[in-house]
Amino acid sequence: MIRLGLMGGTFNPPHNGHLHAAACAREDLRLDKVLFIPTNLPPHKQLPEGSATTAQRCEMVRLLTENLPWAELSAIEIERGGASYTVDTLRQLAAPDRQLFLIIGTDMLLSFDKVWREPESICRLCTLVAYARGIGEQRLLEEKKRVLEQEFEADIRVMARAPVPVSSTGVRGGGDLDRLVPPAVAAYIRKHQLYDRKNGK
User: Fold this and answer.
1) I need a surface site. Which of 83, 93, 97, 165 has the fewest CB within 10 A?
2) Phi then psi for 162, rounded to 5 degrees?
3) pTM, to two decimals
């Protein structure tokens, strides 16, 4: 049985927080591989003005994962087109020889039963793996885990790891690239002057 981790998002840009969460999930849950899946059109938010293009977001994810044998870019949602719904992706990836683990952050777990499409179906198709994105969020995750397990008979794992408080918003807002994203991604952002970066940090 292949244990396959899935991490979705706009990845606008991908950063060290994404990488940390994926690496911790791989280690804690003994995952064989983690797919990083850029969203085509996020159904619940618009990409902000000045965002990277779809092709650029995919290329940054490729650069993030290129030297990690356990991680890879999946363009499944880009290729499908339209709004990207997790339940559709899980149905595409489901197979008898695969166990799927969906890696999500605090905000995603807290909104899971409010805004996600077919949350009950998602819980049947995968194990949810939640990670704290900020300090002090562990208690919120544990409380929500209990609610969702009762409501949907969900299998939810909350990672007991210290968070890396990095956000794509912070990177776009002028944060220190060399501290917030891997070197190859930082170089790409500078080369293509993404997020109004010229040659600055």
Assistant:
1) 97
2) -65, 135
3) 0.94
Q: HEC string of the chain?
A: CEEEEEEEECCCCCCHHHHHHHHHHHHHHCCCEEEEEECCECCCCCCCCCCCCHHHHHHHHHHHHCCCCCEEECCHHHHHCCECCHHHHHHHHCCCCEEEEEEEEHHHHHCHHHHCCCHHHHHHHCEEEEECCCCCCHHHHHHHHHHHHHHHCCCEEECCCCCCCCCHHHHHCCCCHHHHCCHHHHHHHHHCCHHHCCCCC
d(CA 112, CA 114): 6
The token pair at 166 is 């990095």
The Cβ of residue 114 has, within 10 Å, a number of other Cβ atoms equal to 8
For 18, phi and psi rounded to 5 degrees?
A: -60, -45
Digit-coded pLDDT (tens) for 134-178: 778 999 999 999 999 999 999 999 998 887 888 999 999 988 999
Nearest to 181 by CA among 11, 6, 33, 54: 11
Within 8 A by CB and 6+ apart from 110, the residues are: 140, 144
